Amino acid sequence: MEDKQRILFITPVRHLREFYNYVLQNYEVMELIEPTYEDVKIQLPNFDILFCAPNHQTFTIDEDLIKDSNLECIVTPSTGLNHIDVDSVPIVSIKNDEVLENIWSTAEHTLYLILSIVRKIKPTIELHDKTLGIIGHGRLGKMVEKLCTPLFKKVVCVDKKDSYEKLKDIDILSIHIDLNPTTYQIINKDFINQLNKSVYIVNTSRGEVVNEDDINDYLRVGKVKGYATDVLQNEYTNEYSVLENNPNVLVTPHIAGVTLEAQEKAYNRVLEKI
């Protein structure tokens, strides 16, 4: 009988009953709860596959971490890969996978954040006469557009290659762009200065697409009314965030895509792809 592949999970999986039963039947499994970088480095030589998720990780997986292992691949049930900085081992993700068309949790979380930050900062206003701007009109941007169109007077969408002129009169900005060298800290003072109004900003993409120092400065002077985010630019480090304890900031701990239903879909799919 062929030996089972060995998977090291550094993200919780036991709460996903269907998925967890499947991996127990088909793989040799170890699950590390709240692992440190050092914990993972010690265990990796004993495994073929490393399974990780960005929302349960406080460090970056890098070449030094995996250098003494014989990993066949690193698996992540996510579209973003900024928690993995590795070139020597294949990375299996759900980026551009068809399963994403049936996962709405991040788009729904975006709506929750929009409603929450507006009510937190100014509970007297309504959205029906406001304009929502969406930057990044891929899968998630289109989902957010569909959810928010009935709520707003107008929804304006631009993609990364479009002119941002259409966003100049928005009241709320929702960010849905991927992280790459061209989008790093693209939401900064120069970008915000193009907007005619003070705005609320919501980010469920990646923390690094925003310049948090600029956001913090503009929160102080009112050019940014409020910032609601599911991601921080330093979430895989121990660095202090300038946004910490700011009363005009709302932070959720990278949980937009982790409803149980969404996790079951994404986790099962990413193992199918190995």
Q: Any overview of this molecule?
A:
- The chain has eight helices and 13 strands.
- The chain has helices at residues 17-26, 37-43, 63-66, 105-121, 139-148, 189-193, 212-221, 260-272; strands at residues 6-9, 28-31, 49-51, 61-62, 73-75, 84-85, 91-92, 131-135, 154-158, 172-175, 199-203, 224-229, 249-251.
- A six-stranded parallel sheet has the order 9-8-10-11-12-13. It has a five-stranded parallel sheet with strand order 2-1-3-5-7, with helices on one face. Strands 4-6 form a two-stranded parallel sheet.
- Strand 1 (6-9), helix 1 and strand 2 (28-31) form a beta-alpha-beta unit.
- Helix 4 (105-121) crosses helix 5.
Short description:
By secondary structure, the chain is an alpha/beta fold.
* Terminal-residue CA separation: 20 Å
Largest sheet: 6 strands, parallel
In helices, the fraction of residues equals: 25-40%
Tell me the overall shape.
elongated
- Binned strand content: 15-25%
Q: Average pLDDT, to the nearest integer? A: 94
Strand order of the largest sheet: 9-8-10-11-12-13
Low-confidence stretches: none
Secondary-structure element order, as H and E?
Answer: EHEHEEHEEEHEHEEHEHEEH
Number of strands: 13
Number of helices: 8
Structural class: alpha/beta
Rounded to an integer, what's the Rg over CA atoms?
A: 20 Å
